[in-house]
Amino acid sequence: MWDWFINFLYAALQGIQGFVGDWGLSVICLTIVVRLILMPLQTKSVKSTAGMQVMQPRIQEIQEKYADDPQRLQEETMKIYSEMNVNPLMGCLPMLLQMPIFFALFTVIKMVPEGSCFFSILPSISDSVSGVLAASGFVPALPYIIMDVLFGVLTFVPMMMNSQTMDPSQRQQQMIMGAVMSIMMLWFGWTCPAAVLLYYVTSSLWQVVQQQLVTKKVIAKAKADAEERAKNAPLEVNVTRREKKPRQHKKS
Asked: Nearest-CA neighbor of 227 among 42, 44, 57?
């Protein structure tokens, strides 16, 4: 199954390259095609995330009320998700669907002809920062270093943008996590083939632009719809607290 996917991805990349005439540009075009295919799913993911934000106070309320009854807590939480038409797993799905492509590129890039480039910017999309730096020195490696820096920065930017709708404590946690992830990606990207960096940088740029032009409007509308549903169909939580029995003291 994995070999089939590798061969399919290579055939798609080769077909695009035959049309645009550049292997690096074909990676960028492939990324755009993938993002266009995932766009409806991404919109659903955004709506689900917005609904989760609206429901958060209710979730916190039942977490407090059913702290001693995990099974009932799970039932009431799932009931809220169902009535508000929200899937908590939807937020991660677009990213998970892209992961096979991201990892497959490590194998696919070994199949492209030697010396396949991205115009005159990256002489070889199979090379990495560390490889070019060791073989040719700093100046030839500079475009690869810039690509790696973009790889790290564009890991942080979407997380920073997402944190703007969070409360201060969550925002701080998100920013710290984003900074740590960026440093990890810089280190990871140092040995990555340039084609992988091209894919991720293009995908992240798409996400940033999409968030500015589309996602904010979708979130605002989804929140308004979720708040309207919550107002028209309020969810009542019936709570039965466990009786606290007095402790028996041992007789001395």
From this structure: 57
Residue 102 lies in a domain: yes
Alpha helix stretches (DSSP H) within the chain: 2-20, 23-65, 70-83, 93-108, 129-136, 138-162, 168-189, 194-210, 216-232
- Cα angle 167, 172, 178; round to 5: 120
* Structural domains in the chain (count): 1
The token pair that represents 34 in the structure block: 């993938």
Comparing C-alpha atoms, which of 56, 64, 151 is closest to residue 102?
Answer: 151
* 215 found inside a domain: yes
Structure tokens at 80: 């809220």
Token digits for 195? 């084609």
d(CA 175, CA 4): 39
Domain that holds residue 42: 2-127+193-231
- What is the pLDDT tens value at each position of the chain, 252 positions in all? 689 999 999 999 999 999 999 999 999 999 999 999 988 887 777 777 767 777 777 778 887 877 777 888 788 778 877 776 677 666 677 778 888 888 899 999 999 998 899 998 999 999 999 999 999 999 999 999 999 999 999 888 877 776 666 667 777 887 888 889 899 999 999 999 999 999 999 998 988 888 777 766 766 666 666 666 666 655 444 444 444 445 555 444
| Residue in this structure with the two tokens 């930017």, named with its chain if needed | 157
